[in-house]
Every structure is written in C-alpha cells, then in structure tokens.
Amino acid sequence: MDQYIEFGLVYGLKFLTSQEHLQLVFRDSDRHTKAFNNNSGWLMSQLLGRCVGLVNGEEWKVVREGVAHPFLRKSAASQIPLIQKHVSRHFDNLLHQGNLANGLLDPAEDLKMLPFWVVAEILYGDLSPDMIQDLERLVPLREELFRHVIRGGMTRFGFSRYIPSRLNRLLRAFMVEWKSFNDKACARARSFDPPAQIVHFHDQVAKGSITSDNLLHTLDESLFANLDVTIGGISWNVVFLAAHKEYQNRLKDELAAHSKDDTEYQMYILKNSTLLAACVSESSRLRPLAAFSVPQSAPTPRVIDGYVIPAGTDFIIDTHKLNIQSKVWGADGTVYRPERFLGGEALERRYSFWRFGFGPRQCLGKHLADAIIRTLIAHLVQNYEMGIPDGLEWESNPNSWISHPEMRIQCIRRGV
What we know:
By secondary structure, this protein is an alpha+beta fold. It is built from 17 helices and ten strands.
C-alpha cells in the first residue's frame, strides 16, 4: 500500500499514486469534503473560504449552479473570439513595450496578466479605464496577502484578526475595495445588452441562493487565485515548445488545416483529440502546477490493497509521482512526448494524470482555462518561432506557490 500516516486519533492522510486507487477513491468526488479552508487557516478563510472550489455538500451544489454558466464548455467556445482579441492586443503591447521586440520572452512574467484580463471581461463585460485602474491596484495587494497565506505562521489562527498589524490593515482594505469594485461593476453591467455575468451572480445573492462571501470569494478564485494557476499552465507549455521545435512545426501545419473559418477554429480549439491539446496535456503532466492536490475526504470507508481507510480520512495526490513516475507512462515517463495523449492511450490513462481533478467534481474553470491556453499557444506558433538559448537552465520561480518557469526564451516573429 502507498503511504498511510496516522497521528494518534487526530489526523489521517493517505497519499495516492496509483490509477487503481484513484478510481476507487474519486468515483464519487462530488460527495467528498474538501479540507476546511484548504487546511491553510484563518487568513485563507477571509479570501477564499467560501469559494466554489473549497465549499462542500449542498453549499457546493448551490454555488456551482449559480456561477457555472460562463465556465461551461459551450460558453468557453463562444468566448474564443474574445480570447483571440486579448491575445493579439497583449502581444502587440509586448512588441512595443517589452523585450519581445528584441526576440525575447519571459513566459511567466510577460504573459502573467493576459488570462486575468480575459476572465475579467467575461465576468464584468467591457472594462472602463477606471475599472482597469481599480483592478491593477488590487492585484499587488491581493498577491501580498496570499504570500502570507502560503507562508503560514500566526495568520493560520483566528486570534490573529485582533492583532493591530499591517497585514490586517491590508486585508481590511482589500476586502472593502474588492466588494466596492464588484458592486460598482454590477451596477454598470446592468446597462449592457445582455447584462454581464456579474449581474446574474449578484442576483443570486439578492435571492438568497448564495451568500455575499460565496460570490466575492468565487470571483476572487476566478481572477486572483487562478491567475498563478493559469499562467503556470501557459508558461511551461511555451518553454516545452521552445525546446522542441519539431512540435512547433507540426502544430503550425495542424493550425493551418483548421483555420479556414471561425466555427471550425472554435471547435478545433476545444477538441481534446488534437496535437495542440496533446501538447498542453503533456506539458501539464511533466510540470504539474502543485506538488500535492487539495486534501479531501470520502464520505464512506475505502478498501485499498486490503486496508480499510476510514471515512473522513484526507486523501492527497502526489502529483509528480502520479504524472511522471507511474508505470503506465513506461520507460519514457520523463520525456516530452505529446503523442501519448492521442488515440486510445489517453482514455486508459485518465486516472494516471492529475490536472483538473478526478471524478464528478473537477475544476469548474477547466474548459475556459484550456480555451485560453490553447488560443495563446496557437497564436505563438502561428506568429513566432521559439527556442531555448544555448546553456540556459530551466529554473523555477522559488517565490511562487505554483510552478512557474523563471527564464527568458528566444521568440522571433515569423516573416520579419
């Protein structure tokens, strides 16, 4: 059996690393209980404690139903033109204001805010200059708060709220400004035809279907919390393609064959049977965004390798061991080979690849995340040739809670 650790009668953990065990545990993941505040304590509870990704049971079902629409697969497909608009605009700005004009791209830093502005427009509609300034002011404030969440310490305990600290002043300022921004954004968006998603979300609060904390924390999750997650997925994809030019060329040919009209292109972007999708998955396999999954417990006992794991025991996935070292990947598990995600192999291995979770409860934003990542990669491959400078080490940013590369790649505009 894989590692099972028990600390007296207080706490139990089961680390999962095999496909068979994952199927047994996650077949009813919609009935699982996610760790309270992600086991991260009081400060986490103030930012994300009631978001759709962390609540459980009936509350999760109600909140998910109330906020799901913009993240559904059909909705993600309809947003591809908006994503393309943002991608083109972002790269135009990089050419005029960044190092891209010199043929260099820092995948994590230079592309960091792109998914943020895409999701912001999906949620709030077209942003006014004042709204853009408000969000730009909130981003560093929210980033500093979350660094304290990850660092832990005293902020894990509820009594820390009473300490007259700079951190608590920052937290109060953020919470007031975040609520004010969303209230103003909702009032503005009611004049749109059709109204932006924020209006529907606010109406759910007015009806009593979800709470104000459910709304504000889920919006925070969609924008701020997932900023690091999405850019982690984007940036490692760019690095792997830069290191494997043969896949750039193959992707360029595949894109040319599916770009004849907008409808075909939208269908292509969201298909999981393409080389583009396979490249994205293979990058995520080799560079999982987090070392371990969010702890969650099953509602009933599970029998694994003859051992009875009691109900309420937290299960955690060792993502590196599962994604890279699992025997199903064969002798080349450490090698970048996107073809392993094409054909029948992919279905057989679905419980050996952690990315959006397993079973009925998976990441709500997975379709939109894929639409953003694939559209961006498509733009890069069509318009730029990427490479890794000789001798450049693949460094990760040690200050990020999500795996991000810390490096500059060569990125030369095609036809120039």
